[in-house]
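tl;dr need the bound structure. longer version: we got a ligand (zinc ion) that a collaborator sent over and nobodys looked at where it sits. i said id run it. heres the input, straight from their email, havent touched it
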Amino acid sequence: MPLHKIRYALATHYHIDHAGLAEELKREGVPLLVLDVQLDAIPIMKTWTKPGDHYIDITSAGNTTISFAQSRQLLRQMGIAGEILHTPGHTDHCVSLLLDDGAVFTGDLPLKVHAFENPVVLATWRLLREKGAKQVYPAHGLVRSVDETPDEQFPK
Ligand SMILES: [Zn+2]
C-alpha cells in the first residue's frame, strides 16, 4: 500500500524505536495521530538521540491530537471498530489500540509476569482485561493470550 493511503500513524509511546520515524512518515503523507497525554513526551525524544542518528524532530504541524474519549469515533470513521486506551506502565504516556475483536496492541507494556507487583502495570492489565482484550500484540516478541502464564511465554 502506498504510504499516502495510510490514514494515520499512531505511536504507542514516544521512544525512539517506536516513533523515531514519525516526522519522516508525515513527509511521505502519513499524518500522525497523537493522544493528548502524549504531547509532552514528543519534544523529549530528541534528548535520547545523537547527531549520527539523523533523527528528525517531530513538529506539531499537521498532527491530529485527540482525547481517549474521541478515539472510538475517529477509528469508526476509518472503518475500525475499537478504541485507544491509556495504558501506563512502561511510560506514563503509553497508549494501546484495542479492537472490538479483542486484539490489543500494547507497545512496550511489560507482561504481567514481568510486572513485579508494579501497581501501575497491574492496573493497566486489569483495565485491558475488563475492556475485553484477548490477543496481545506487543511491540517486541510474540503474540500471546492476555491470560498466558510464564511457562507458555517461554516454551522449552
Ligand atoms: Zn519504550
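gonna send this back to them w/ a short note. Helices lie at 16-19, 22-27, 68-77, 119-130, 150-153.
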